[in-house]
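Subgroup meeting minutes
Present: P.N., E.W., G.H.
Scribe: E.W.

1. P.N. recapped why we're keeping a running log of single-chain structure predictions: easier to compare across weeks, and new members can see raw inputs and outputs side by side.
2. G.H. added today's entry (159 aa).
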Amino acid sequence: MESEERIPSLPANLKLEQFDELLALPSDLSFLPLANIPRNVLRLTALEMLDATRIPKHLISYIGPTITVEIKPKQGFYQNHLSMDIPYCNNCILQLEKCGSDHFEQMYDFCPLDLYSGNFSRMKSSLEALMKVPHRNLRLFTDGNLVGMISSRDSMHKV
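Output recorded in log:
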């Protein structure tokens, strides 16, 4: 296939912001056919990172298990409605809708906008909120295997 027909698997931590940057990469890096992307897409951004849940066995100086904490902040954006000003991010709106339903037994204070804010106090509060009530946004791995979702500060201290 030609280079303009496929999306490449990028080197770790390489970010592409322009479609022309994507097309300039060699086709042998490719995994996803561009035909799978809708024609009306105006912007395509991708970030591929190393799998940090496992450390390669060939690293001689490494001793002990690999412990990985996965944070999956979701929907950290404001909804755009012409007729109303909504003061909550999409994640918080979904929280309000799901609270008390079969999805979640309790509401949590985590807001991804706090995590993205760059303000140390807000970022710290958002991480503390995730530790108290992780839902499906905080997971713990040992040697690449899911140990479980962290459910409280006490269990975090045990780990």
